[in-house]
Amino acid sequence: MLVEQGFQQVPFQEGNPYTQDPALPSLLRRLIPPRDFPGASYAANQRLFNEEIEPELERFGAEVITTIRAQSRGNRISPPKLVQYDNWGRRIDELQTSEGWRSLKATAQREGIPGIFYERKYREHSRLFGFAKAFIMVGDSHEVFCPLSMTDGAARVVELLGTEGMKKDVLPRLISRNSSSAFVAGQWMTERPGGSDVSQTETKAQSLGDSDSLGSKYSLDGFKWFSSATDGDIALALARIGPADSGSRGLSLFLIPLREALNNRFGSSTSSTNGVRVHRLKNKIGTHALPTAELSLEQTTAYLVGPLNEGVNNIVPVLNITRIWSAISSVGGLRKCLAIATAYANVRRIDGGKRLLRDVPLHVAQLASINLVYRALTHLVFGAVTLLGRVECGVASVEEQNRLRMFTPIVKGFAAEKAVAAMEEAMAALGGQGYMEETDIGRLIRDGIWEGTTTVLSLDLLRSTTNPARLKEFVSWSYSIILMCPPGLLKAVQAAIQSLQGRLDTLLAAFLHPVPPLIARPSLMFIGYIASAIYLLEHAIWSHSRGEEGYEIDAEVFRRWVNDGSFVAAEQDLDRIRSEVKFADASNSAIVFGKRDHAKL
Ligand SMILES: Cc1cc2nc3c(=O)[nH]c(=O)nc-3n(C[C@H](O)[C@H](O)[C@H](O)COP(=O)(O)OP(=O)(O)OC[C@H]3O[C@@H](n4cnc5c(N)ncnc54)[C@H](O)[C@@H]3O)c2cc1C
User: Fold this and answer.
1) Biased-composition ranges for Polar residues (predicted)?
2) Of 143, 102, 100, the residue nearest 333 (C-alpha)
3) Which residues lie across from 280 on neighbouring strands?
């Protein structure tokens, strides 16, 4: 039989990723309330949202599945290549990225990523608007948002701590929409002795006793083990001025100009790469188009950013912003997988061709459970984005600032773990076709986790709750939303609310001091579940009160999320670890490495 003969499967058609999304449009309508824009009447504000923000997201959604997606078709996107020597034996370290990679990056910059965040046209809602655009493109971005997220973080560091020269010459380029002159920034923290813990950083900085418009000049020498924005224009790097045994307290933050044009412009090193050599490109399991490299630094000219010896504190905005970005990427990836699985259900027939998958209850139940995870994660991530926007615009209360500090490691860790598992479910919903590279689901699973581990994030969560008041604030915030539930809605969700209240008690009990470190990871997952449930409830209350279309579904989603087996298991997990904590260390070691320490068991 010829391939053209016999059964021909109709390909699935994905809809507009904004208008067809099951959660985003109504979530944004709640989070960007029309009356909130400054200095305009209610009617004008309503127009701003209805006639500006929504149509822009609709237009952009249509671009994503047409022109933007086309930028990575065929062989337009491919892994980068490193040419270290020319044919005369000279070291050149030429990094060749693919046409698709460069054009996707330029498209994102022109669309205002990260410009929108700093133009702040929509005040504290600018983060929501910009991240909504990124969210609908990220599944087709081949991770160009990884370097752009670091650019975003670098812009924030320069905005907060940069010299006047950096604010004048560097910041406008970091946030520029003109892709031909916009800068991309990398962050160079991770070294061979450790990425989670930078206290053993080996890179040394020496003052050159000189300065120019960008600030005080230093010379850097060291080896950076991971650099994902290797095609960037500048980098923010940690380096040590004092002795090696000064740990992380001896680290300072530096801005490094890269590339010849920049070096000339900044009057820095005469070498074509400012003393930065690309030792090797990493051979990664995912993010294949992203040029992640190992770099050596020799007499690299750099400029001090912020106070000396406070490098770890000074780079915190980059870490926090990229963590939110990482969550946007994981959940945005899931958005695309879910859209594909849902679209496939509309065209694939089973049962001897009698039924479409969309009419098969068992299959629809599987799609509904992916949808549930997607909605919960979307509400959680955009909840954190709302807080970020408020903090950056100086309108957040102290409680909101603390909540953002607590939520930042949670959203990254929780979103990455839950989204990737749900992506695998979406893959299975396409049968064998799901396993094919062309659907993109495999790539999205591989790209779903960028860097950093849930364990390390969970330790950061523990640090953020060292003061017991922080956890109590979280519980009070949860109750403030629970108490807003109107009687009409309460009937439908009362049992779920009672369960949630019980889980808040479990959480408080788990964090009674001293908090055992072994609860770090299960509590990150548990708080992730609780926080997303509270956000879902907040949304259900809003849509019920306004009689929004589909308000019953919002209530049902909240109810199901609270009753979901994995949420129940997360509570049991935390309880079990708390009760076993005294013996767990020794028995875990015995399980993993053999029974060497049986006296402790
Ligand atoms: C695709 C990709 C791109 C990256 N891009 C960049 C980049 O651009 N710039 C950059 O600076 N870095 C980058 N990184 C590096 C990344 O930030 C580090 O890999 C990460 O911080 C972990 O550090 P590590 O690899 O040294 O692992 P380690 O810190 O050695 O961790 C190894 C294991 O030990 C566990 N662990 C570590 N400390 C503790 C602890 N105290 N308690 C319990 N468990 C612990 C971790 O959970 C992990 O499982 C990138 C990584 C990847 C995968």
Assistant:
1) 197-211
2) 143
3) 294
> Bridge partners of 218?
207, 302
Sort 161 into a burial class: Cβ within 10 Å, 0-12 / 13-18 / 19+: buried
Ligand 1 binding pocket includes 247 (Cβ within 6 Å): no
Contact in structure between 450 and 287 (CB atoms under 8 Å): yes
Residue 190 backbone dihedrals phi, psi, to 5 degrees:
-70, 130
Count H helices and E strands in the chain, helices first.
22, 11
How many whole angstroms separate alpha carbon 235 and alpha carbon 151? 9
State the first-to-last Cα distance of the chain, in angstroms, to the nearest integer.
66
**pLDDT category of residue 408 using cuts at 50, 70 and 90:** very high
Strand partners, 255: 236, 303
Q: Is the CB of 35 under 6 A from ligand 1?
A: no
Q: Is 451 in the pocket of ligand 1 (CB under 6 A)?
A: yes
For residue 295 the two structure tokens come to 């770099």
Closest-CA residue, ligand 1 atom 50, reads 451
Q: Is the Cβ atom of 308 under 6 angstroms away from ligand 1?
A: no
Q: Which residues of 494-508 are buried (b: 16+ CB within 10 A; e: fewer)?
A: eebbebbeebbebbe
Does residue 457 line the site of ligand 1, with CB under 6 A? no
* pLDDT tens track for 109-149: 999 999 999 999 999 999 999 999 999 999 999 999 999 99
Query: Would you tell me how many other CB atoms lie within 10 Å of the CB of residue 271?
Result: 15
Q: Which residue has the CA at smallest separation from atom 37 of ligand 1?
A: 196
**Residue 454 alpha carbon, nearest atom of ligand 1:** 47
Task: Pick the more confident residue, 17 or 577.
Answer: 17
Residue 579, judged by CB atoms within 10 A of its CB (0-12, 13-18, 19+), counts as exposed
Helix (H, G, I), strand (E, B) or coil at 191: strand
Nearest CA to ligand 1 atom 42: 456
